[in-house]
Amino acid sequence: MNLAESLGFVPQRTTRAVRAINVEKLIPNPDNFYHIGDLSELKASIMEDGGVRQNLIVEPQKDGTYLIISGHRRCQAVKELLADGADVEADLPCEIEPDHAKAERLMIRANSAARILTPWEEVLQAQRADELITRQRHEGLINEPKRQAMQKLLHKSSGSIGRLCAIYNNLVVDLQQKMKDGKLGVSAAYEICQLRPEDQEGLLATHNTFGIEEITLADVRHYKDMNGVGVCRDDPRQTTIMDFIDDEPKEAAVPAKAPETPETPTAPAAVPPEETPPVEAEPEDDYMDDEYRQLMKAHRTVADSAYARLHKLWTIYNKYNDGNITEDKYINDTQYECHEMYRELDHLRVIDEQMKKKRGKD
Description:
Shape: globular
Oligomer: single chain
Order of helices and strands: HEEHEEHEHHHHHHHHHHHHH
């Protein structure tokens, strides 16, 4: 096995057909979130080498075009050279990958092994891999454990993958933008994403007040020390590393709680014949303990957060309606807030069922 095979560029025991395809038939992959960046050095290299020497990998489409899996920068560089009138070959060497499932994984694997990613690209890559592996395991296309599949695809430890996924799910939108702008690294972002959303917003507001663009790990820890802010361990909104490196898909965790719901009304049914008077005399003392108070606190926290998400949706819409944000940002921010709101409402339902069950006990 050669180096290319070990890095996942060429499937083992498989030979792809190689064909020269005109750049006009090569279509950028809409799922490609990797930054194209400056192409000046690449274009100079292509001119010096007399054309593109490394094969692109493409997936054939029904309309006769080819979706780029690996090679977006090379294709774009050639298009720009041709537009400038350069003497460069318009037909590029392409390996044909007809298997869509393999093509989806290959786009992530090739980029994770062959390029230096920005912090935000690392986060998006981990999240995309998480969604892809989960879906393909459900479809029976991948049989190995999720943790193992994620490590192989991203060339990272499960802990690193978990941190990146936690950042994507827990970091507030404005701080995600900091990562996109290159003003927030992975280590600092992970430290921040363990805080409650309101504390994250407070940290950002403090930095904005003093005109500080870049947020470092030292800045985050200083803010936590000065404001007495700690890691959020009891907020059901927060996801953890283990939510993403568990061998079972995330969807498998939801049905596990379903059997508890029908049992809720049966708990008090067996009690009245034996202890009806005490129940009437001291209804609160039977369930108003520390555990129940913690549930009440969690219920308020999650309910307030879900309401805040609703308010944020109106704010985003007003910004878009007033022309202050682009349509892409409107869609992305709205999608994020809706995703988080549904997740919080799911947590609220779980807490509510736990409180009902607690009230039903003697």
